[in-house]
Amino acid sequence: MAGVRGKRGAASQGDDESSENAARRHPLGRRSESVRGTTGAGSGRQAVIPSGNVQYIASPSGFARSRLYFALIGGVEQTAPTFALERDRYHAFEMIYITKGRGSFRYGETEYELGPGDGVVYDMRLPHAFRADPSDPYEMRYVVFQGTDLDKQWGAWFEAPCVALPAGGEKEPRYAALLLLVLEEMARGALEREPYVSGLLYELLMEALSADRTAPAERGAAAPPALDSGRRYLEERYAEADADIHGAARVAGLSYYHFIRQFKRYYGSSPKEFLTKIRLGHAKRALLHTDLSVAEAAEAAGFGSYNAFLHTFLQHEGCSPTFYRKAWRRPPAE
């Protein structure tokens, strides 16, 4: 079980002795406040925003633990000026979102300065620590969660065990809203809502993944005009078999390797992945909406040979172009 060291934020004056003992027993070392939720999430409306220091402690069913993603602990914490929390490890994952104030978060050897709108989602199995700014201690919303195969899936999704989500990113409103919905469901504590909570946690991770696919320094930033000209070259000349990354780099006025690095920073994928996606998209549309043969569809989409097209198609679609056409092509309207 995780070891917890350091000072914790002051509790609300309403805590009685039993809740004090329960807080001390809890492995994460945060104090809880009794909360009864009376409203549900969904139906396209916004979640109810909890006020004050609140903590929801969930008891997932065996079904959820064996088949779903599930929340363990979540809530809102207004930290005290002296707040400092250091944790060796805990076998779960956590997302935090700062609503006001300032502080820091240390993960391994990396320290993150946090302010309003900043978020972090991370694997709790490595040492980490929180500290509030004494002059402006932060308030944070948080949820600790786990899930079936999430340990393995995290490594498939994220390149690092800790993902910083800076304020002002395109995805911030979405993952902030999802976190509120999770907390609202935790307040209800209804077992029949566990599949819904699992879906919310999955969405939360996907929003974090989407935000993480662009480097933090470039989130929301427009690509330099030279780089954009290289991207347009690929979009406009995809059908030419000799149109390649070297040509796009020349148009952009960048070296081959610098173009690749910059492209991935701003667009979230390599130029090769980008060009392949364009060519596959055009080839699939030709298979479904024209009478071109498979070889002709490949040539029209810019693939240099039938074999290259077949290999790429099998790799990305998991089936042959012929099977894809038979499975998805609709008969002509009468």
TrEMBL record:
Superkingdom classification of source: Bacteria
PROSITE patterns named among the record's database cross-references: HTH_ARAC_FAMILY_1 (PS00041), HTH_ARAC_FAMILY_2 (PS01124)
Residues in HTH araC/xylS-type domain copies: 228-327
Organism, as annotated: Paenibacillus antri
Record keywords: Activator, DNA-binding, Transcription, Transcription regulation
Record's protein name: AraC family transcriptional regulator
Keyword Transcription: yes
SMART domains reported in the protein's UniProt record: HTH_ARAC
Residue numbers spanned by region Disordered: 1-46
Transcription is among the record's keywords: yes
GO molecular function, one term: DNA-binding transcription factor activity
